[in-house]
Amino acid sequence: MPVAKQGALLVGQSGGPTAVINATLAGVVEEAQRREVFTAILGMKYGLAGALRGDFVDLTGMAVDELERLVRTPSCALGTSRRPLTQPDYEQILNVLRANGIRYFLLIGGNGSMVACHKLATLAEQTAFDVQILGLPKTVDNDVRGTDHTPGYGSAARFMAMSVRDAGLDLEAMRTFEDVVILESMGRDAGWLAASSGLGRETEEQAPHLLYLPEYTFDEAGFLDEVAGWHRRLGVVFVVAGESLRNKDGRFLGHEPSELPQDEMGRTLYGFAQGTGSYLSRLVLQNLGLRARFMRPGTLGRVMSCCVSETDRAEARFVGRRAVVALLDGASGQMVMLERLSDDPYACQAGLVPLDEAASGERLLFEAFYDAGRRAITPAFKKYALPLIGGPLPQVTGTLEVPVT
Questions:
Q1: Assigned superfamily of 153-305+365-385
Q2: 211: which strand partners?
Q3: CA 290 to CA 288: how far, in whole Å?
Q4: pLDDT confidence of residue 5
Q5: Is the pLDDT of residue 7 over 60?
Q6: Is 301 in a helix, a strand, or coil?
Q7: Whole-structure pTM value
Q8: Is 166 an annotated catalytic residue?
Q9: H or E element that contains 292
């Protein structure tokens, strides 16, 4: 093992919060404490914005009970940001690291965070600054490349699976009054999270009846035909739609791209405007005359601690610990990744992947995981995702059909 250089460890959280990102932070701190080689363990306040200002909190002396509470706390305990960074910003961050004796840098985040880590690592190498930089993956979107899945996804997917299954029972019970429910899923341009809504579905009569993913062009006429067909069959229809559905012209449903704000990577922020679910509910009402309710769980789904997958939480913590081990092994310019060893029994190990690969773009849902003809997930997706959500889910019953005697 390489000899650890004298210096402090700095860790931060970036991008959207999750229900288990603090477990990764706790894993970093507890492993760093155990190693006793760092001059300090520091946390950057509000992500890279804190790194720019040198706004740090000392985590060196966190007690065991504090760390255990942190593991079970949702959202980002250090705060986060999506501040766009310029080249001078990256130079300033490295200057702050030099001035504070920081020689180890960890950033927990998604696609944009991996891009930032890659740029920082490249600049540090070009300027001969001896600092080790690693990215730690997280995102409910599950769209980071180079890893089987991202911490945060399993818990958000569990929320989606349970919410849609249970809301489907609500719709079934209300069939004398309501016709259609449309749930708009987060996930950006990838359908991983929307697809997870089908993980609690055991029969065709159960929700979701129709699943529309952003990887596939949306056809309004076909959508209306499919909704009408399911309504004739069941009397109710539960639809799950990705937040970034586009029509054949590439336009977002219900609004122009120019109407929406963007993040640091120039990606559309869908939750800040009237969205897909609202548009589709109006479409159903106006064209089919059916009562249509729309739902947008939004950020509730990514931070609900009551729906956390214990597998997700354990892996998030493990990623944090593994990052510290990798630093002390001399690793830099890489992202900690999760590699699946088997599905049944489920087993996973951590490794490393170059940051340039992790930052090379979004990973979309695999074609083998979605049946576009049936608007449903495939058995292959269930095999992939059920272990991540701690599935299968507890069984429930539908409307009772026992005759009165």
A1: Phosphofructokinase domain (3.40.50.460)
A2: 240
A3: 5
A4: 75
A5: yes
A6: helix
A7: 0.94
A8: no
A9: strand 292-295
